[in-house]
Design brief:
single chain; six-stranded antiparallel sheet; 8 helices; four-stranded antiparallel sheet; f41 fragment of flagellin, N-terminal domain; alpha+beta
């Protein structure tokens, strides 16, 4: 086969260029520490690395969201802790106010302190997260959630309601691929929608059938439900109940009435102070209503107590009711010590319900914070796993690369030397 001088030059030049290109690529790999610099270096590894990189960036974003969620929930937990301390402080003062030796002036001092606690509660309820977003306004982060509606009352026993301007929405953050976590609490759920009484029904003084307020010294507790299905059936039938005391042949007796239509449900029963009174129907057909109350002290003939299904009462209303009761002089024709003690007992029960509600929500926030710790640990493990996978796909094996670099360098030098010798061959040198 005849080989021309041009072929020799072209072949030599091409060999040198290929070796230079290979040496250049190895040099770039060694300087960057990466085996795959362009998709053509390893198309399969490059495609897999792109998927892993996207997954890693997504995990990084989730980790950032987890940090934001933790910050907001920690602020929220601090506010809930302050509200819990406030309720406990108010309850202590309410129990102190139950001391029968206190004068009206001393009770008014406690009322003034509770007014300060009320103002403090308004401040806590309108807390923000430091970025201008209110903690307890639901979706309406920029709306101040709580404010007193209308003008302040002139009569101490009356109260102005506190209105809620937020909603019940939850602001969500995507903290993992399958988890959106609420980072706020609805103020309606926290402070407004609290069931009064024992959560099922509310007890209260009902006045004397002869007119005016209760005349005796009897007080009624919050009561309890012993069978919820029987109670629900009773409420559907009778709505609410009334206990009225009368004079029997051997002493005080009581009867239970349907409050709505004043129908008598029981025959007279002898009254024993402190003994549980079962809510039931003894007239035909007899039925148990699955609930009971305890009346203590000594009622007089005609004194009444009412039992009605619970409704929602805000913590603000409970505080305002306490302040109103403490500011009202005790011992008047319209506000006796019996009325005062029953109102005070009812509001202490409502405080307990509020405390239980705040504690429930705070426990939920705590479980979210604990979940974030677990999610963060998982995210860190994933980031390490993604980094290891990317290293396997992209990173350079220096031992192999250096060996190949030395080999490529030797090939280039050989190509250059052989080309130098071949290109010097000529017929003219031997003629």
């Amino acid at each position: 086969m005849r080989i021309s001088t041009n072929q020799i030059y072209d072949s030599g030049t091409l060999g040198i260029q290929r070796n230079q290109q290979g040496l250049y690529q190895l040099q770039n790999q060694l300087s960057s520490g990466r085996r795959v610099l362009t998709p053509e270096d390893d198309p399969v590894a490059a495609a897999q690395a792109l998927i892993v990189t996207q997954s890693k960036e997504l995990a990084t974003q989730y980790a950032e969201n987890q940090g934001n969620a933790k910050s907001q929930l920690s602020t929220l937990d601090s506010s809930l802790g302050a509200i819990t301390d406030l309720i406990q402080n108010v309850r202590e003062r309410a129990l102190q106010a139950g001391n029968g030796s206190l004068t009206n002036s001393e009770r008014s001092f406690i009322a003034n302190e509770l007014q300060s606690r009320f103002d403090e509660l308004m401040g806590l309820a309108n807390s923000d997260d430091g970025t201008g977003q209110f903690l307890f306004s639901g979706y309406q982060g920029g709306t101040r959630p709580f404010a007193i509606s209308g003008a302040a009352p002139t009569v101490p026993a009356l109260v102005s309601p506190v209105g809620y301007s937020g909603d019940e929405g939850e602001r969500l953050l995507q903290v993992s691929g399958g988890r959106q976590m609420p980072v706020n609490v609805s103020g309606a759920d926290l402070l407004m929608n609290i069931r009064s009484g024992n959560g099922t029904f509310t007890t209260a003084v009902g006045g004397n059938s002869g007119g005016g307020i209760n005349q005796g010294t009897a007080t009624i507790d919050a009561g309890s439900v012993t069978n919820s299905s029987l109670w629900n059936a009773a409420v559907n039938t009778h709505s609410s109940f009334r206990i009225e005391f009368s004079n029997g042949g051997s002493g005080l007796e009581y009867q239970i009435y349907n409050q709505a239509n004043v129908a008598m449900l029981t025959a007279p029963v002898a009254y024993t102070p402190g003994q549980a009174i079962s809510l039931q129907k003894t007239t035909a057909p007899a039925a148990s209503f699955g609930a009971q109350v305890v009346v203590s002290g000594t009622p007089v003939v005609g004194d009444q107590f009412t039992i009605v299904p619970s409704s929602n009462q805000s913590l603000f209303k409970t505080l305002q009711n306490l302040i109103g009761a403490l500011q009202t002089p005790v011992g008047t024709a319209t506000f006796s010590s019996t009325e005062y003690n029953n109102r005070l007992g009812a509001e202490i029960t409502n405080l307990d319900r509020s405390l239980d509600n705040v504690s429930r929500i705070r426990a939920d926030v705590g479980s979210r914070l604990k979940e974030l710790v677990s999610l963060n640990d998982t995210a860190e493990d994933l980031k390490l796993q993604y980094s290891a996978t990317l290293s396997d796909l992209q990173d350079l094996d220096y031992t192999e690369a250096i060996s190949r670099f030395s080999q490529q360098q030797m090939q280039l030098e050989a190509a250059q030397k052989s080309f130098a010798q071949i290109q010097s061959l000529s017929l003219f040198s031997i003629l």
